Amino acid sequence: MLLPACSAFSGGDSGTVTLTMVESLTNPSRTQLLERLIDDFEGQHPNIDVNLVSPPTEQADQKLQQMLMSGSGIDVLEVRDITVGPFSTNGWLHNMKADLEGWDGWQAMTENAVQAAHDSEDRVFYVPYGFYGLSLFYRTDLIAQAGFSAPPATWEELLQQASAIHDPAQRRYGYAFRGGARGSSNVTAAISAYVADEIDVDNGFRLRDGRTIFAAPAAQQAVETYFALFRQASAESSISWGYPEMVEAFSNGSTAFLLQDPEVIAAVRESQAISQDQWTTAPLPTGPSGKTVQPLASAGWGVAASSPHKAEAVELVRFLAGGEAAATFAKENSLVPTLTAAGEDEFYTTGPWASYVTMTENPDTYLVVTQPRGVAWWTEWEQKADADVQKVLLGEMAPSELLAEWDAFWTQKWQQEN
């Protein structure tokens, strides 16, 4: 991909500013949506041109980092809770706190969105456009054929139902296992459910007594159950499945269960292999206590510290993160919305979205926690955790050893931090 040489500079037209904006969670329909919103913005701001750069998703974070390191050529960028830590630590992001003082967009946002925008030092490095929260996608027809009257409510029931449906000879698989990139995130989802009674909601990797969640006795049962899903109910090839392969396995009708974010609703609705009445979603499976943990992941728009056009860049962030643009982006990109008004929208209370409403309305069962995604070592953690998951799947590491490794990693990092 060739990046434009005219990145961030005043254009030839008198008084016109060109902003370069880079997205990271790229897909064709999403890019078209962003381009539409940008056209609206340019219509309202004739002195600003926006050049959207859309690297392939798998390479986007690396591309963004390269551009930020160069110190030029980028004005507005997609910032996620897993990149804000390293990006801000390196001084690559502009703190928009002062720029957004008095912005009426804050009043229209949910409490979760406002909290996500402000870090522990009350800095604003990005304004969220939506949240990614897990739910269980399932095939209504396949669970009925297997003799079950309702979707699984617990992780144990998920293992039971997925194993009963699993029939590789028929190319029918129980569970869309994530063995590849970011596969560790689903392992921590299972562990979190099993330790929900003890978890620190302000730090989803810590128990209230200060230990890591990986040190809890219940974590052992969680990983045994989770890795049994791979052995008993998943395609052999899922050892390397990442996001695209998981979603495809559910969308093409070959897999009964998928744990994924709401953006997948839009993708599955486009499927020609399964009809609307063959699938829906259920709330996250619970652990032994009857509770589970919903780690809301967030992402949004930020401004590069190196941008020579910060005022115009912040204006674009305000536009995309507020009002009609924010509502449109969340709805068409299938995200948990940031605006309070969305709670009155029928779109979010029916069909596959209903499970999210159920979880929101029952916060004592579906605990919302904040995972420590903003730490500077998050990328290091993901790389280590994914590598350890692979070792377990290949039989090179026991689940108990994985827990010991993860406990030691986070304990050491927190000690160094203090």
Rg (CA only): 22 Å
Largest sheet: 5 strands, mixed
In the residues, how many domains can be counted? 2
SSE arrangement, N to C: EHEHEHHEEHHEHEEHHEHEEEHHHEHH
pLDDT averaged residue by residue: 92
- Broad structural category: alpha/beta
Percent range of helical residues: 40-55%
Strand content: 15-25%
Enter the CATH topology name of the largest domain.
D-Maltodextrin-Binding Protein, domain 2
Please report the distance between the alpha carbons of the first and last residues. 43 Å
Task: Look at the structure and give the CATH class of the largest domain.
Answer: Alpha Beta
Question: Please, could you describe this protein's structure?
Answer:
With 418 residues, the protein is an alpha/beta fold. It folds into 2 domains: 17-131 and 298-344, Periplasmic binding protein-like II (D-Maltodextrin-Binding Protein, domain 2); 135-295 and 355-417, D-Maltodextrin-Binding Protein, domain 2. The chain has 15 helices and 13 strands. It has helices at 28-44, 57-70, 84-89, 111-117, 140-145, 155-165, 184-194, 217-233, 243-251, 263-269, 310-321, 323-332, 354-361, 378-393, 399-417, and strands at 17-22, 48-53, 76-80, 127-132, 135-139, 173-175, 199-200, 203-207, 255-260, 279-282, 292-295, 297-303, 366-369. It has a 5-stranded mixed beta sheet with strand order 2-1-3-12-4, with helices on both faces. Helix 1 links the parallel strand 1 (17-22) and strand 2. The radius of gyration is 22 Å and the shape is globular.
